[in-house]
Design brief:
Elements (H helix, E strand, L loop, with lengths): L23 H22 L3 H24 L5 H26 L6 H23 L8 E3 L3 H17 L9 H18 L4 E3 L12 H16 L1 H25 L22
């Protein structure tokens, strides 16, 4: 016997479409990163540069977690991607530029605020390029220095010098010009095509040898010896690593671009022109 479909009254309003919600867990991490950047700016305005530096580094940690949490819990969304980009622009674009300007660059006059703007503009360009090139870039590498690492490079310099007791840096021309050089280097490196390892092929779901856990524990212990110097050194090494890889591959006649030929898997030979 055939079932008879229910008849809807023509006078009844059509059923309301189901409203789309927002995944709260990954966006909490993103909001935490945004708060870290905002907190850093407020601290810098009050001359508390150590707290400002800690705020940026905490934001970088939270930013590295939100995407992984979204993928692990299958809660990715277009809203989350846009929210992450806006948070990155504040925490790793505007905030480091303003903090560096407040700490050292404002004593250099026009050159100082231009350098801060160049960094901020490069961060915006880097994020825009990243969003438009997601489907065509080899996921194992970033195209240019990622904005959290650039922010860590700039703010790490501030943190180390502030920890060493350098106050009123805008009255010390040599240190102020060194700060300007760090700012320009970090900003311009973000918009290069130099490949920086992304660590995205490191899976948290796979089992690892026991020695890996021991190494992580040792790394945490080393960082705690003196966080400003250790973290700044780590990001200086990372900030140079892309140029080393690029130069080595060029010298060997190997392919150097991170633009992938396949959207499914990176080419077996690695990077390509």
């Amino acid at each position: 016997m055939n079932e008879i479909a229910p008849i809807h009254d023509a006078n009844e309003p059509p059923p309301r479409p189901r409203r789309k919600g927002i995944y709260i867990l990954p966006n909490l991490f993103t909001l935490g990163a945004l708060f870290g950047g905002f907190y850093a700016v407020v601290m810098a305005m009050n001359g508390r540069f150590e707290n400002a530096s800690i705020g940026i580094f905490v934001a970088a940690v939270l930013d590295s977690l939100d995407g992984r949490v979204a993928r692990m819990t299958n809660t990715q969304s277009a809203f989350g991607e846009q929210m992450d980009s806006l948070s990155d622009m504040v925490s790793f674009g505007a905030a480091p530029a303003l903090i560096m300007y407040e700490w050292a660059l404002k004593g250099l006059g026009k050159a100082g605020w231009i350098a801060a703007f160049v960094y901020c503009a490069c961060a915006a360009l880097r994020l825009a390029r990243f969003n438009t090139n997601i489907g065509i870039v080899d996921k194992r590498f970033f195209q240019g220095l990622p904005s959290p690492a650039a922010a860590a490079l700039v703010i790490g310099f501030v943190w180390v010098m502030d920890d060493a007791g350098y106050e009123g840096v805008f009255s010390l021309p040599a240190l102020a010009w060194a700060a300007l050089a760090f700012t320009l280097y970090a900003g311009l490196t973000m918009v290069t095509n130099v490949p920086f390892y992304s660590f995205k092929d490191v899976s948290l779901k796979r089992s690892v040898p026991f020695i890996v856990i021991v190494a992580i524990a040792l790394a945490i212990a080393v960082i705690n010896i003196h966080p400003p110097i250790v973290l700044f050194a780590v990001f200086c090494i990372y900030g140079l690593s892309g140029y080393v890889v690029y130069g080595w591959r060029r010298a060997k006649g190997l392919r150097t671009s991170v633009i992938a030929t396949s959207k499914d898997e990176p080419e077996e030979e690695g990077l390509h022109r």
